From TrEMBL:
Region (Disordered): 1-86, 99-134
SUPFAM superfamilies: ArfGap/RecO-like zinc finger (SSF57863), PH domain-like (SSF50729)
PANTHER family cross-referenced by the UniProt entry: ARF-GAP WITH RHO-GAP DOMAIN, ANK REPEAT AND PH DOMAIN-CONTAINING PROTEIN 1, RHO GTPASE ACTIVATING PROTEIN AT 15B, ISOFORM C
Protein name: Arf-GAP with Rho-GAP domain, ANK repeat and PH domain-containing
Stretches assigned to the Arf-GAP domain: 371-496
The organism of origin for this protein: Neovison vison (American mink)
InterPro entries (alphabetical): Arf-Rho-GAP_ANK-PH_domain, ARFGAP/RecO, ArfGAP_dom, ArfGAP_dom_sf, PH-like_dom_sf, PH_domain
Keyword Chaperone: no
PH domain boundaries: 163-255, 276-365, 579-686
Gene encoding the protein: ARAP1
Keyword S-adenosyl-L-methionine: no
PROSITE patterns listed in its UniProt record: ARFGAP, PH_DOMAIN
Entry keyword set: Cytoplasm, GTPase activation, Metal-binding, Phosphoprotein, Repeat, Zinc, Zinc-finger
Pro residues biased stretches: 14-53
Length: 698
């Protein structure tokens, strides 16, 4: 079998083959006196500062024709390695995607040390090359030594996420009719066909989702085409037998992908049916001339040349965030660091940078989570799709409603408050998922949940996986806070009879009946009439109904749905309050019961993930926490003040005063981010006498 990811990472790296020394040093270097060779070279104590070159985007595998280089006569195909280096077009002479367009020319050794315009920084792996050509190259061009590939001994990048079906060298025909074949290391797994400049590269030059491949066809001696709806990729194998193996492997992968798509036919065969990105947009990536289109999808960050190619699904590379880490670099920039490269991104603004950081940190959490609980709960078919919008593979849940939901709906459920929905992650909140709770979700789950909560949803009001946050919020308010679509119990409206029926139901295995009774107003803590078992929970315990006990415990504080449950703020306004939502990190001190007279030092602030949604400002220990440390309701805010810069340990601060005579102090270094928070909080708590301010921008 294939070695595990840990075994691959622990395998000793292969030593690089010796490279010939250049015949003469570059002309731009001053020639010094000849030095005798050292019989025992030793690594320097401090590695030299890497040279940083301004690379260019390599379009050799995209749509443009190479800019220079001789064309071969018609009918003649020439292998790349058969040409001298000087005759290879500039766009072809590159190290990999990771050094796009960096020419391995004589002048490359003469870089400006102050330049910081490299595409990806290489991470040293501890090896020193004292007598090879590699030692004269900047570190951003060095190819890391990686563990051997389990299939055929070739070193590769990070351990594959899915098992590799086939891997090997193929010649690839560049687009637009170039006659020069380029040798590429090609890897096929169940989800992607990817090709690389080298078998040592960690990240691909191109990835083609198997779901996008429409057919594979032979086109001549040793050549074959991989055809998608919009693009055709031509490859050449070493022999007809090798070509046959590649074609069979590709055709089988396409057939199996199609079978999986038909099995979950809720979504059409395509790239992104259920994988809507957590964040997508254009970012600058250091070393590329043009912005790239970047998408954070699940536990991966995907890079595309532009928006058009994102929609086609054909990308440059993707980064598995299980080996990633993100951190701020400067005002608009941040670094995504992996063991293989550093990706340096720049956003349009500080606010956008914070949003990208949050999305990528979420991808890291997703990558490091465990799917064991999710897989068990997904074993029941209705639980494989979000109970609210139908998105596939939902990995969040409401443990009191006993439904499985997607990440987007989970955010809106959290906004409903714990009195309506208690949100937990299937993958990250491991301690929550006891065997009893898992069994409860297998017995009830989305099937029973929607037979009760969604019994009367009009098609015009149903959610879709791509519904907007506003549409989700409106639908979920109606569904769970108001109970608008629920199936009414025959005893609805008769409190005494509802309570009696609940006391009877909890002594049986009929969980759906208990769910319906509680959802229609039965009192979870009503008096049973039996002093020895005075509550429904005590009755369930007496009867040995463990699942009933779990369900009752999770609903001890759940509010009864009411059609007239309009939020207090909404009752006082003659205009509709704006929907204000915002999130990000803030630095916060402990709340105080009096005005701040003294300067608060930076050490007194704690970093908290803050979410403003549905008139509530909640603050969490971190962005992965599901239970807030505390919250401030906009309806309770009486004053929002902004002290002068540098009043406290952070340059920019703002103070929130509430009716309960509590003062909350928040801080940030960024004026732009602080201003955005103040604007959003101000819009969320506009008092009645200042209703006309709703039409203004703060």
């Amino acid at each position: 079998g294939l070695p595990s990811k840990e075994e691959e990472l622990l395998s000793p790296p292969l030593s690089s083959p010796p490279q010939p020394e250049p015949e003469e040093p570059p002309a731009t270097f001053p020639r010094g006196p000849p030095q005798p060779p050292s019989p025992h070279p030793s690594p320097p104590e401090i590695p030299p500062k890497p040279l940083r070159l301004p690379p260019e985007f390599d379009d050799s595998d995209y749509d443009e024709v190479p800019e220079e280089g001789p064309g071969a006569p018609a009918g003649l195909m020439t292998k790349k390695e058969e040409l001298p280096v000087s005759h290879i077009p500039r766009a072809v002479r590159v190290a990999s995607l990771l050094s796009e367009g960096e020419e391995l020319s004589e002048d490359d050794d003469q870089g400006d040390e102050d330049e910081d315009d490299h595409a990806y920084e290489g991470i040293p792996n501890g090896g020193w090359h004292t007598s090879s050509l590699s030692s004269s190259l900047p570190s951003s061009l060095l190819i890391p030594e990686l563990p051997p590939h389990p299939m055929d001994g070739h070193p590769v990048g990070p351990a594959p996420i899915t098992p590799v079906i086939k891997a090997g060298w193929l010649d690839k025909n560049p687009p637009q009719g170039s006659y020069i074949y380029q040798k590429r290391w090609v890897r096929l797994d169940a989800d992607h066909l990817r090709y690389f400049d080298s078998n040592k590269d960690a990240y691909s030059k191109r990835f083609i989702p198997v779901a996008c491949i429409s057919r594979v066809a032979a086109i001549g001696d040793q050549k074959f085409e991989v055809i998608t709806n919009n693009r055709t990729f031509a490859f050449r194998a070493e022999s007809d037998a090798e070509r046959k193996e590649w074609m069979q492997a590709l055709q089988q992968a396409v057939a199996e992908q199609g079978a999986r798509a038909r099995l979950s036919s809720t979504y059409p065969l395509g790239v992104r049916g259920s994988e809507l990105p957590d964040r997508a947009g254009s970012l600058e990536l250091r070393g590329f001339k043009n912005k790239l289109y970047v998408a954070v999808v699940g536990d991966k960050v995907q890079l595309y040349k532009n928006l058009e190619e994102y929609h086609l699904g054909i990308g440059i590379t993707f980064i598995d965030m299980s080996v990633g880490n993100v951190k701020e670099a400067d005002r608009r920039s941040f670094d995504l660091t992996t063991p293989y490269r550093i990706f340096s991104f720049s956003a349009e603004s500080e606010l956008e940078k914070e949003q990208w950081l949050g999305a990528m940190q979420g991808a890291i959490a997703e990558a490091l989570s465990t799917s064991e609980v999710a897989e068990r709960i997904w074993a029941v078919a209705p639980n494989r799709f979000c109970a609210d919008c139908g998105a596939a593979q939902p990995d969040w849940a409401s443990i009191n409603l006993c439904i499985v939901i997607c990440k987007r709906c989970a955010g809106e459920h959290r906004g409903l408050g714990a009195g309506v929905s208690k949100v937990r992650s299937l993958k990250m909140d491991r301690k929550v998922w006891t065997e009893t709770l898992i069994e409860l979700f297998l017995q009830l789950g989305n099937g029973a949940g929607n037979r009760f909560w969604a019994a009367n949803v009009p098609p015009s009001e149903a959610l879709q996986p791509n519904s907007s946050p506003g549409a989700r919020r409106h639908h979920l308010e109606a569904k769970y806070r108001e109970g608008k679509y629920r199936r009414y119990h025959p005893l609805f409206g008769n409190q005494e009879e509802l309570d009696k029926a609940l006391c009877a139901a909890v002594t049986t295995t009929d969980l759906a009946e208990t769910q319906a009774l509680l959802g229609c107003g039965a009192g979870v803590n009503c008096f049973s009439g039996d002093p020895e078992a005075p509550t429904p929970l005590a009755l369930a315990e007496q009867a040995g109904q463990i699942l009933q006990m779990e369900f009752l415990r999770n609903n001890r504080t759940t509010e009864v749905p009411r059609l007239d449950s309009v939020k207090p703020l909404e009752k006082h306004y003659s205009v509709v309050l704006p929907t204000v939502s915002h999130s990000g990190f803030l630095y916060k001190t402990a709340s105080a019961g009096k005005l701040l007279q003294d300067r608060r030092a930076r050490e007194e602030f704690s970093r908290r993930w803050c979410v403003l949604s549905d008139g509530v400002l909640s603050y969490y220990e971190n962005e992965r926490a599901v239970t807030p440390n505390g919250e401030i309701r906009a309806s309770e805010i009486v004053c929002l003040a902004v002290p002068p810069p540098d009043t406290h340990g952070f340059e920019h601060t703002f103070e929130v005063y509430t009716e309960g005579e509590r003062l909350y102090l928040f801080g940030l270094e960024s004026a732009e981010l602080a201003r955005e928070w103040v604007k959003c909080i101000a819009k969320a708590f506009i008092p009645l006498p200042a209703e006309d301010l709703l039409a203004r921008d703060f």
